[in-house]
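Bumping with the actual sequence this time:
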Amino acid sequence: MTEQVHFDSTEARLRHALLQGRDGDAVAYHGFLNALTAHLRAYFRRRLIALPDEVEDLVQEALLAVHNQRHTYDAGQPLTAWVHAIAKYKLVDRLRRRAGKERLTDPLDAVLENTAELFSTADGEAAEARIDVHKLLAQLPERQRVPIVRTKLEGLSVAQAAMATGMSESAIKVGVHRGLKALAALIKGET
């Protein structure tokens, strides 16, 4: 029961501050945005445990959407439902964009699975061959090898790999993509 009272008072306080802000009270609106920031941050953190670097960007995107759409809020409706809808759509949009970008690079595991498939049908000597990933990686240029090692073997995010290597995030993504293609070609003996 206490939790419901707290929720109701938070809802009423935030709703009141938003409505005052819409009527021109800059201090009330600033207070609304500050309080909403904390709630949005908690909302996104709970949903992006595996992607903590995405939280702050999503908070900013959601705040901007709330600000730009504040005139559409119906004062007769719960504020939390309106804000939740905005936050949910921002989260879904971010995850879709991220999934689209991740499709551009094949995981190293998929390349290695395809390698096992390739050698499973070979005869005699080739069937006994064992791929040494490090020997394969050593054949790649540094601009491809380093991004693969950092992201696929060490498990760093693209942003972390970029910071660690001094390369841009785009260079990391391109390096991984091209490097995995080159590895697949090496494995198949196409080079």
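The tokens above came from a reply further down the thread. The chain has two domains: 2-102, 108-188.
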